[in-house]
Specification:
CATH class of the largest domain: Alpha Beta
Distance between the termini: 118 Å
Number of domains: 2
Structural class: alpha+beta
Strand order of the largest sheet: 3-4-5-6
CATH superfamily of the largest domain: VirB8 protein
Number of strands: 6
Radius of gyration: 32 Å
Order of helices and strands: HEEHHHHEEEE
Shape: rod-shaped
Length: about 200
């Protein structure tokens, strides 16, 4: 009788221990599954698919801080290309300058007005001059706000009989603003100034 009770008690303890082990195992598996699901959802939220030429291209979202230097330099380069790369076509000049003005404050508008009043753009059109800029390097200080920059570039001015090469050094500040269709990087160039713009060489064509 006592032996039978002892066997029942041992069996009960065994079943209880086994059941507890199953419960703990199930809990651990559930926690792991929830964690992995959360991790997967998080990873999928960072994926962006861009449709280009009827093809879906996968991109990844990232914190702006990780790319601020790259975006700032591209903003500066883009602005200088719009403002200084010109062809002898009034509509093309106006389109390019308009794009540049979306990226900058009144300091750039003032420079544009001065060049326009001096007949600079009229001469480009009448003399069939094409102008190209190559940005050589950009110094950028991210330790202050707005960010200070200095841009070093080379201008090539092609006339009917010659090609003039000039150096160009500009400076300014970048202030963060909301992104828009006309300003995809979300920076505004402020207090822009031309420090140097002088002839380097002239070549006959």
């Amino acid at each position: 009788m006592f032996q039978q009770m002892k066997n029942i008690d041992t069996a009960f303890k065994y079943v209880r221990g086994f059941t507890l082990l199953i419960i703990l195992g199930s809990f651990a598996v559930s926690c792991f599954a929830i964690y992995k699901s959360y991790e997967l959802v998080n990873a999928n939220q960072k994926k962006i698919f861009i449709l280009a030429n009827n093809k879906a291209i996968e991109a990844y979202a990232s914190d702006r801080k990780a790319n601020v230097a790259v975006e700032a330099r591209d903003e500066i380069k883009t602005f200088h290309n719009y403002f200084f790369t010109l062809s002898p076509d009034d509509k093309e000049i106006q389109s390019s300058i308009t794009k540049a003005l979306y990226l900058a404050d009144a300091s750039v508008k003032n420079e544009y007005d001065n060049l326009k009043e001096s007949g600079y753009y009229t001469e480009i059109i009448s003399a069939n001059i094409s102008q190209e800029i190559i940005v050589d390097s950009i110094q950028l200080d991210l330790n202050q706000t707005p960010f200070y920059f200095k841009c070093f570039a080379t201008q090539k001015i092609t006339r009917t009989t010659s090609v003039l090469t000039r150096n160009l050094i500009t400076e300014g500040f970048l202030r963060s603003i909301p992104r828009s269709e006309n300003n995809s990087h979300g920076f505004l160039i402020e207090r822009w100034n031309i420090l140097e713009n002088k002839d380097l060489k002239i070549e006959k064509r």
